[in-house]
Amino acid sequence: MVVTVLISVFAHGLTAYPGANWYANRISNKQDIDDKMPEMKPVEKMAIRLPWGDT
What domain range includes position 15? Predict the structure, then answer.
């Protein structure tokens, strides 16, 4: 089981940077951006909820 976790961590380390760059390049391409992509839709500012704040 430990070997499986180590292989998983190693594989993630090898693929995370290239995968993130691929996704960023795809998103930065203006032709791919449209209203259907949830990550590109505007959102309202969320309220901060702190346990010690006023209610």
Answer: 1-40
Residue 17 lies in a domain: yes
Confirm if 40 and 33 have CB atoms less than 8 A apart: yes
The answer to whether residue 2 is domain-embedded is yes
Q: Which residues of 6-25 are buried (b: 16+ CB within 10 A; e: fewer)?
A: eeeeeeeeeeeeeeeeeeee
pTM above 0.70, yes or no: no
**Does 35 reside within a domain?**
yes
Q: Write down the pLDDT at residue 28.
A: 78
Cα→Cα distances 3→12, 14, 15, 16, Å: 14, 17, 18, 20
Residues sharing a CB contact under 8 Å with residue 54, sequence separation 6 or more, in sequence order = none
